[in-house]
Amino acid sequence: MKTDNFSVLLQRFFSDYLISQRQASGHTISSYRDTFCLFLKFLQRHLKKDPSTIEIENITVDIIKEFLKDLEKNRNISIRSRNQRLAAIHSCFRYAAFLYPEQSNLIQQILAIPHKKHDYPVVQFLSSNEINELLAAPDRTTWLGRRDYTLILLAIRTGMRVSELINLRWNDITIGSSSHVHCVGKGRKERVTPITKNTASVLKSWFNENKSTNENLVFINTRKGKLSRDGFRYILKKYIRQVSDNCVTLKRKCISPHSLRHTAAMQLLEAGVDTMIIAIWLGHESIESTQIYIKADLKMKENALNKTKDPKIKSLRYKPNDSLMKFLKSL
User: Fold this and answer.
1) Looking at the chain, which runs of residues are DSSP E strands?
2) What angle do CA 122, 125, 127 make, to 5 degrees?
3) What whole-number distance in Å separates Cα of residue 130 and Cα of residue 132?
4) How far is CA 144 from the centre of its chain?
5) Which H helix or E strand runs over 305?
6) Buried (b) or exposed (e) across 57-68, using 16+ Cβ within 10 A?
7) What pTM, to 2 d.p., does this model score?
8) What is the mean pLDDT of the segment spanning 28-53?
9) SS3 16
10) Residues forming the active site
11) Do residues 255 and 243 lie in contact, with contact meaning Cβ atoms separated by under 8 Å?
């Protein structure tokens, strides 16, 4: 006999739909898992029920909205992250629509919960001078300094994501006449990224020093374990603070590890590389994802502006002739 227990739906959603039917990537499964762990804890507090006893009909539109509000207010997540959590819930209930047609009214109401609109800030990236300052910061006479230099250099030259860099293994790197790095990125898309002779030389020296590291990883922490996302962020922030006094433009920027990926894209764009090639280089799903770099390129906009001409009209300054208007204009 079919039951409308939410735990049954959730287990089938992960095992049957995500893993078996869609063969979703580990990143997707982890993200969805985290969403429903948070959601179940929220339901447990508000419904006073154990997660395994919650019924589908207990999950209303209002309670999902309260959950999303709670994420923004108490966990201080961004609107983008809020929308990602909602997308996971939507995906689960789209699957539920096929299993529980009798719950179609409730399910359609849940699927109608909209994503929030959010701002699209201009991407942050490093200029050529800022790149040079940042790469000069690590003390390359020490093991840590050489690791940090190699890590930051590879991130800037390849545009690899943080997850791709910290999971990179030595057998993913080819040094020779056509040096390149192989990685499996978002959506399990494989790509091969060429590297310059200088970057290849740095990687070769790093390999000779660390070829017998744990799990064949290229970048490890001081305990010889896998470098974490937070570890990468800490390393970058440390050097940004270190060079900010000499490079004042960095003080006005909020640079994250993902900014190094943006930096690689902007360098390619400024070199005149076609956006289609940049999309392939970065492993973007579509060329539309690359448009953000065109919007961020001030030099390209300035060049476009220089091709235009100002209208030959004499400029005039408006002067109000009424005392009240003069007063308002003076405020």
Assistant:
1) 173-174, 180-184, 190-194
2) 125
3) 5
4) 26
5) helix 298-306
6) eebeeebbeebb
7) 0.68
8) 93
9) helix
10) 161, 186, 258, 261, 284, 293
11) no
